[in-house]
Design goal:
Structural class: mainly alpha
Radius of gyration: 21 Å
Largest sheet: 3 strands, mixed
Strand content: under 5%
Order of helices and strands: HHHHHHHEEEHHHHHH
Number of helices: 13
Number of strands: 3
Amino acid sequence: MIGEFAASLWNCQISSTELEKALLAYDPYYRDECHHLDHSLQAAKTHQHFVNIIKQVCLHKTLPKSELQARIEEILSPVDVSTEGLVSSIEAAVRLWLMININSTETGIKGYISIRTSLAWPDELSMTQVIGNCFKQEDHRYPIRKSHFSKDLNVHSLEKIGGYRILWTNNILDHLALKDDNAVAIFNTASTLRLIGNSAGDVFPPGFIDETLRTVALLLPSADAACSKWLETREKTQDLDPGIRHLSSAPRDVEAYTYWRDRLLIIEESFDQHEPANLSQWYHDRRKKVQLYTF
């Protein structure tokens, strides 16, 4: 059932290999979203209702939310629709579609326990405006002090040398967020992201989807043996997208990243300032070779 729903959501063939890979990581996300919805409140009662809502969002992505609501209310007729239930269903549909935590209020969601940042959708803004305002190329606030990201900027080094926890997230808003100075969130559903890009590419700013995939590849370089072994271990116990294993190599030029540059720079600076705290971290640290030989 979820396969048919996802195929309709992203406008792809249900038998496609890409969808099969995507569902491995998307299925837990879908179930979590559905579990936390207050179904008695929702205007959308079936999968088809959610698919119909997404079709309207796609067709009218430049309309303010208030005008979009009126169009969606018409297609849900004769379902008894309250304004509260309609807004809750529209935002739930967008979360299922784009894997971005669009949530103007806590209405309709029962007690999330997660790291998830939320993004409000004001009535006067369109879907493309909300997404565009959130992810801006020109909005850089962090100074560039180097031309390239270090090869040590990867999940294995972050964990083994820096002691950072790697938090897998299904919310694009939290991708590359440094949490509590000792955890890095990474959006781990690369296969899903490709499908989202194919079905909703023009909802996002130009090049955003491709750059997001490159940042995942940057932190999980497939050619790095230590990172590959690290990932293999986690795949045995976690619902990870196998697609993150087969991403093309990513450039390490700082200028190659416009949407995610600041977050990458913040992570690297935090990592560079970190000194090994135990014997294992000392052993894996190759950043200061003289220090290693002395030790």
